[in-house]
Structure formats: C-alpha cells, structure tokens
Design a protein that fits this description.
The complex is a heterodimer of chains A (113) and B (150).
Chain A: E1 6-12, E2 15-24, H1 29-42, E3 47-57, H2 59-74, E4 79-82, H3 86-94, E5 102-104, H4 107-112
Parallel strand pairs in A: 2-3, 3-4, 4-5
Antiparallel strand pairs in A: 1-2
Helix pairs in contact in A: 1-2
Chain B: E1 14-17, E2 22-28, H1 34-47, H2 52-70, E3 77-83, E4 88-95, H3 111-124, E5 127-133, E6 136-144, H4 146-149
The chains are: A alpha/beta (113), B alpha+beta (150).
C-alpha cells in the first residue's frame, strides 16, 4: 500500500550503496532483505544502507538490517547505515542499535568512513 | 473509515466510530494493510490533542502491537479498538483467526525482532501487555499525553 517505498542499488567509490525510501515495515521488509542479500552476496567492499529518505521503520525493518550486518560480517564486509530523520534515529536509539551499527548523518560521511 | 452515520461498509476492511469517540477497526491479515492501523491511531491521536512527536510514537507502537498479536500469522482478521478519551489513548488488538502460528524461518520474524518490539513499546508508551477480549487473546497499550504528565 505504501506507494513511496523504493530501493535503489548503486556502486560508488568501491562501495555498494542501497538507498531506501518510504516506509519499512512487515510489508516492505522482505524486499529490502532480498536486495541486501543480493548485494552482499554479489558485490564486494563496504555496504552502505542509506535510510535518508525512510519515513518509518519498525522492528521487522530493524531485523532485516541486523541480518544484513551479520551476513556482511560473515563475508568480511563492513556495513554502514545512513540516517537523517531524527525519528528514525530515535528508533535505533531506543532499541540500543546505535551501539551495534555504524551510523552516519549523510551518504558522503558514510562513504568516507 | 466510516462513522455511525454512514452506510455499513461491505468490504473486508471495516471501521466504525462510536459517538463517544471510540474507533474500532477490523482488517484482514495482509501485511500491507497494517498501514490502516497506523493511519487510524494517527487520526484518533490528533483529535485527542497529542502532538506530532507523540503521534509518531503511537504509529510505531501500534504497528509493533499488531505484529506482536499476529505473531507471524498470515490469515484471519485483526480487530483494533482505539479509545482517545480522557487525555490518553488506549489501543487494544486481537486476532480472531484460528490459523496456526507458522514456523519462524524469516529473519524479520525471529525472536530478535520480538525483543526489539518489546524495547520499542517499553520506550514509547506508558503501559502495554497482554489482554483477553471477547474470549480472544490479544494485547493492549496505553499512552498518556505528555502535557498531562507535566
């Protein structure tokens, strides 16, 4: 139902960037999981999940990110997350995931980390 | 969403608002329809004087409440009741289906997400927990307006 949800994959500076937009919930999380699994399995180098244009994320979306982080770790790859919206950052904070993820305020900062 | 003054909604998704301001919503268990629960709580919270940040908290909390009741089910109907009276919002949710809870093989429905869901509810609402309504097991939450707590 969320027509604004979207995923764009690209390579920038030797990094796989997965840019997500819209609401990440139980309806859209499977598509994000598939995209991240494909990127982690097929590409190389760091992975950046860009959530700048994400307007909502729930525990299913967070679960997908945690799964992707583990997949990256198993493949010897670094996973970074970009968060711009304060209310999205708040979800990471209240779940304690700011301690788990490398979170950056912009894509440029994530790419140069 | 319809009111008592409207004709009955013949579709699978039905909602009603009582004269007291209590909104009831029944939706088929389809993942892309949970957005209706978020929309309903946004509307009730706005009418009850909650501010934007509180409304965003409630959208996420109700989403997590629904997920906890569904517990991975993919069939049946989800019944929600939103009571925005008395300077607080109380939301109850139960599932009327008889479907078996499926094996948890998906990364987004494992025990970890349950833990995350619990942390989210702990942080965003004043009370939450299990409830039995009309013989069905469900869950409820309650959030008071911050202005009233001050």
């Amino acid at each position: 139902m969320d027509q604004s949800f979207g995923i764009v994959e690209q390579r920038r500076q030797g990094t796989s960037v997965v840019a997500v937009s819209g609401e990440v919930d139980v309806a859209t999380a499977p598509a994000l999981r598939e995209a991240l699994e494909r990127v982690v399995d097929e590409d190389h180098g760091p992975v950046v999940v860009d959530l700048i244009d994400v307007t909502f994320i729930d525990s299913t979306g967070l679960g997908v990110l945690i799964g992707a982080r583990k997949r990256c770790a198993d493949a010897g790859r670094d996973l970074r997350v970009v968060v711009g919206e304060p209310r999205i950052l708040k979800v990471f904070e209240i779940t304690g995931l700011t301690e788990l993820f490398s979170i950056h305020g912009s894509l440029d900062l994530a790419l140069s980390a | 969403m319809t009111t008592n003054n409207s004709a009955p909604d013949p579709s699978d998704t039905a909602a009603a608002q009582t004269p007291s301001g209590v909104v009831e919503l029944a939706i088929p268990v389809e993942s892309d329809l949970l957005v209706l629960a978020r929309l309903a709580v946004s509307t009730v919270a706005s009418r009850s004087g909650f501010d934007i940040e509180e409304i965003e908290d409630l959208r996420l909390a109700v989403d997590e409440l629904c997920l906890s009741v569904l517990d991975g089910r993919r069939s049946g109907r989800l019944h929600l009741r939103f009571d925005g009276t008395s300077g607080q919002i109380e939301v109850s949710c139960h599932h009327d289906g008889t479907g078996v809870v499926p094996e948890r093989s998906d990364a987004y429905t494992d025990g970890l997400t349950d833990e995350l869901s619990g942390r989210i509810l702990d942080a965003l609402v004043d009370e939450h927990g299990p409830v039995v309504r009309d013989g069905w097991r469900g869950a409820r939450l309650c959030k008071r307006r911050a202005a009233l707590d001050a």
